[in-house]
Design goal:
By secondary structure, this protein is an alpha+beta fold. The chain has helices at residues 24-27, 37-52, 120-128, and strands at residues 11-17, 60-71, 80-91, 94-103, 106-119.
């Protein structure tokens, strides 16, 4: 399968309001009611997935396999956070992204993320075995 339609530099951003369910206290990753690192990671992965999904053939998707991030600033409930992913390298089915998260005051996190292109049906068939 050829994935030549995927272009380096492709980017996507997603935004969410920090709700009580997205806090470290609620997610079990900490004891405070601040935006949880696992929530930030999930938002970064979502941005990366959506950056390339429209360019993939029908029946294909991506799975995250590696993420290296720093969460540098806390956010309270009610704040808005945006994650952005930019495709920086393609090696066959391996996709490398720069990811960042910010609010109106600036960066709250950044890192690198790797995803692989998969045939969804084939992938799930292997998982079920």
């Amino acid at each position: 399968m050829d994935f030549e339609h995927i272009k380096i530099g492709s980017t996507h951003a997603v935004e969410v309001e920090v709700s009580p369910a997205l806090t470290a206290l609620a997610m079990g990753s900490g004891q405070l009611s601040v935006y949880a690192t696992p929530a930030m990671v999930a938002l970064m992965e979502q941005a990366a997935m959506l950056a390339v999904q429209p360019m993939l053939p029908q029946g294909y998707g991506t799975v995250g396999v590696e993420l290296q991030v720093q969460h540098t600033r806390a956010l309270p409930v009610g704040a808005y956070v945006q994650a952005r992913a930019t495709l920086r390298a393609i090696d066959g089915k391996r996709l490398e992204f720069d990811v960042e998260a910010c609010d109106a005051q600036g960066a709250i996190g950044e890192g690198k993320h790797v995803r692989y292109i998969v045939d969804n049906e084939r992938f799930m068939s292997k998982v079920k075995k």
